[in-house]
Amino acid sequence: MPAGGSAGQRADIDPEETAEWVESFDGLLSTGGADRAAHILSVLEARHPRGAEAREASVTEPANPGASFTTDYVNTIPASADAAYPGDEAAERRYRAWIRWNAAVMVHRAQRPEIGAGGHIATYAGAATIYETGFNHFFRGKDHPSGGDQVFFQGHASPGVYARSFVEGRLSEAQLDAFRQERSRPGGGLPSYPHPRLLPEYWEYPTVSMGIGPMNAISQAQANRYLAARGIADTAEQRVWAFLGDGEMDEPESRGMLQLAANDGLDNLTFVINCNLQRLDGPVRGNGKIVQELEAWFRGAGWNVIKVLWGREWDELLARDHDRALVDLMNATPDGDFQTYKAESGGFVRDHFFGRDPRAARLVESYSDDDIWNLRRGGHDYRKLYSAFTAASEHRGQPTVILVKTVKGYKLGPSFEGRMASHQMKKMAVQDLKDFRDLLRIPIPDRDLEGDIYAPPYYRPDPGAPELDYLLERRRALGGAVPERRSRCTQIPLPQPKAYEQARKGSGQQQAATTMAFARILRELLRDTGMGHRVVPIIPDEARTFGMDAYFPTAKIYNPQGHSYMSVDRELLLAYKESESGQILHVGINEAGAVAAFTAAGTSYATHGEPLIPVYVFYSMFGFQRTGDAFWAAGDQMARGFVIGATAGRTTLQGEGLQHGDGHSHLLASTNPAVVGYDPAFGYELAHIVRAGFERMYGGEHPDPDVMYYLTVYNEPIAQPAEPEGVDVEGILAGMHRISTAASGGAPAQILASGVAVPWALRAQEMLAAEWGVAADVWSVTSWTELRREAMRADEGVLRGEARRTPYVTRRLAESSGGPVIAVSDFMRQVQDQIAPYSPHRFLSLGTDGFGFSDTRAAARRFYRVDVESIVVRTLEALALDGAVDPAVPARAAEQYRLGDLTAGSTGRAGGDA
Length: 914
Prior knowledge:
Strand order of the largest sheet: 9-6-10-11-13-12
Low-confidence stretches: 1-9, 49-66
Domain Transketolase N-terminal: 120-313
Mean pLDDT: 92
CATH class of the largest domain: Alpha Beta
Domain Pyruvate dehydrogenase E1 component middle: 495-718
Number of helices: 36
Protein name: Pyruvate dehydrogenase E1 component
Shape: elongated
CATH architecture of the largest domain: 3-Layer(aba) Sandwich
Domain Transketolase-like C-terminal: 735-866
Structural class: alpha/beta
Helix content: 25-40%
Distance between the termini: 52 Å
Number of strands: 18
Cofactor: Mg(2+); thiamine diphosphate
Largest sheet: 6 strands, parallel
Radius of gyration: 32 Å
CATH topology of the largest domain: Rossmann fold
């Protein structure tokens, strides 16, 4: 029966005939087995309403379009097929009670008046049995022969994970009491959610920015297979578990990569969705059924679906439900009603659920109201969960999702269970604590609860308690602690100097964009015999735009199914080639998926002890703007790698229009402390920055290797200069180096430019000298952001009790010939203005503020006033303000250069099209 019961179905005009068909199929299933039944269904499918015969007979589709993707609202695994439970349920129930208590008390204690730090009680309370099933029997630690599993914990359930670690002896009472007090408590406290950067030996995967966990889990499962296919790590027995919320699945990212897992056949991946039917404020689908909706989604995407909806107490009722009255009620009842039932009483459920059908009411006529109230949801039954986890682990060829029905705030009492406000409830009254203690049978006397309301004690038995010994033995058997993060990894050789030689030589008589300069560096990195096989190019369907299709025939595109079709370009030199052991992750039009792939590869050094070197290349506009939250999570997870913003700048990508022109990615990137951003102008600068990135992230010597290098490169061809003799490498890496000193005397000025604007600055220098007698020096600013960060560290020194020092940018400009500073790039002025407070001279900037538009480069640069002539006029303006030139000169120059006429602009040339 489709989700939602009879609603949307046609009336059954001949129930007797229907019963005969059902009886016939049941007989086929019992005598011929599942394979024979599946064959018959496939034959019938050929005559499905989409077939010609049916159309001719005017047979139409059922009214419910999701009907073929959903099953009855009952457990997928029948009671007769439940796996035998191998654990000691009594022992597990006892220490699960301790963990429940400690999780709630930890959050409650954090609400004492002088702290009020917040926290969530209800999520873990409802999911405790789910997690404990995994901890006791499935989650393998890093000392397991397989290498261990990867577990993505639901963010709001973190109190329960901390509470278990306390019972295990991994965390102290002082640490629990420092929940959400990471800096103010001596020795440090516990972060609110799973944050690896904040607790780097404990958490592995940040998940509380909802929607990112599902994507990253899918990419982690793919990365495991990729590592094995590339011969870098044996991950055959590892499993990725992602624990998610039903409300979380409304995030587009949560569902947006399901097809990747299905297409790759990632049977090493299991999603466990805690379907407590509630979002943060109310029902997920009050008028519908979220479990059925998710079942249809996942089945349609090619996943194996297992529903765990009802506990063992329902088995006997369902066995007696011969005419499906109970199943029909389950199918027809919307989620909003199910939530109401759990907030009421057994008598209410008898009247308002079973009482809706006399046949169903008769099933429970011998049950007391308490018996009815104790009919549990499947997510609170170890045996049902164990069966589902086992089935998921044994399933082959598809990823599996387990849809688990629970009650939010389970066992916390009537003030919490199933209530709309349970997510925001963070503390308990004295009577709530007493009732909770009694329900869990925690040996704590009343006097310990009646004193300080904010200081109910934690509970952990003395060493040697049999239940505690059992808990610890289960973890030893499964390979040790979970969660645990390790950062020890294989030391890899750094790239040979040859990888950078060509970029340092320049382009000679030819012209080359910095995008091509980087592509050549990457080509040499892939060829490096020591570490090249660890480089992971990640490209979202724009390899040809970025000149990276040259990698296809040699590195090949990773596809676990290989290349089984005849490629249309098979005879071409740069043919599109896929392979089971391919090196390139070509993720399609999917920036969010690309960041997830980057994160999985960039944290392989910690997850598997085997470094991968992700190089993610994308349209610069679609990086930090579209997927900034995912990059923030990557920074939290301490990913390492290179992020390349290609076709950078607001005016460089001619003709592409408003949503392709990037004038602000460096500003967005600067908000992420883990991103080291550079905007180089020349290939030799790129070479030194990439080399320094490798040394920092993979050399094993830097005190802070857990960063991502963001490099913007351009598609505008220029004559790439050879590296000058005695080049200022320190300046390139620090953020600025002088590339041209004024050749003649005159009023001094300093022109600072980055990226594609550096050639404009050099031409402006010539015009200022020849036409206005101004002696301007030109600096290539490789990183406005790194200059600002260093300056901020310098000027905060006094506040940290250190001696004051001069920021690098201030010192370098003070050492110059003087004069005002004019800063320009193909980005908005705020990017350049980052360093304005640290200039020792007058500071004026030019930038591409505003929306982008489609036009020639010359017209766009004249429109934004960043072209050569605008730089000249801005420099004259600054000199006039300083009294170094006549105040009338800037206006005269602006009129002479026709700055108001877009057709008069000539800065930039065509070429390097997107």
